[in-house]
Amino acid sequence: MLDDPDDIHPLFHGAPSSTEFRKLRKRLVQNVREAIETYGMVRPGDRWLVCLSGGKDSYTLLAVLTELKWRGLLPVDLLACNLDQGQPGFPATVLPEFLTRMGVPHRIEYQDTYSVVTSKIAPGGTMCSLCSRLRRGNLYRIAREEGCSTVVLGHHRDDILETFFMNLFHGGRLATMPPKLVNEEGDLFLCRPLALVAEQDCARFARAMNYPIIPCDLCGSQEGLQRAQVKKLLDEWETRSPGRRQVMFRALMNVRPSHLADPGLFDFAGLMLGRPGEIEENSRQLRLPD
After folding, report:
1. On the chain, which terminus has fewer CB atoms closer than 10 Å, C or N?
2. Would you put residue 243 in left (φ > 0), alpha (ψ -120 to 50) or beta?
3. What digits encode the pLDDT tens for the residues 237-285?
């Protein structure tokens, strides 16, 4: 990548010149390009709604996508969007000022979903699920209004892993956030270009760039959640065996239905004696879950 100040997007102005940061930036771009290509996220000429919360992950998402577009490697239009949900203490001016200063096309939307959530959830209850559904509905509406075909979220590899284990431990199913899906109405794609990116890399990048981070716990509902417990468990595994997260994530990309127990994915009843090659071929005949 070139580092001439006249040949980089303003989002990268002031980037550290250290070898460590250069490697980090290169790894982020490579991971995002791989996810975009692997999961077929791009349709040239489309418009993407890039959703920003103001956290480290969404800043990293915006910067890397902008870098790819700046280099002519992402043939889509990008529109950054922040949904101000009326959380007490939310610094409403931070993102609009930042995006304007960086010259990033954007839309700021205010919808007081916080009041809706607090009116429906008992004190001390977990607000995240309802809050997320309301947020997603508003983002879909904004995407339609702006002529966007794709809603882009900043969930990274660790978010995907945590969701998998939450479903495993608490939901009794093997499922997680997919890198790409179509919404229920069938008119919008939802993509997660950071699917192969480690959370630690997002944190290092945003910190090195000194982006104005907005805390994710303004609503006070984060402590003690199941996700926090799973995250702690994964942290402990990673500490004992460095690289464990990456190995587990690769397992999500290497599924063998014939070695699980879901008769809806593999025809166990129809198994017949035969050559191993024939059995392996049968295992590829999947019915993907809805």
Report:
1. C
2. left
3. 999 999 999 999 999 999 999 999 999 999 999 998 876 655 555 555 5
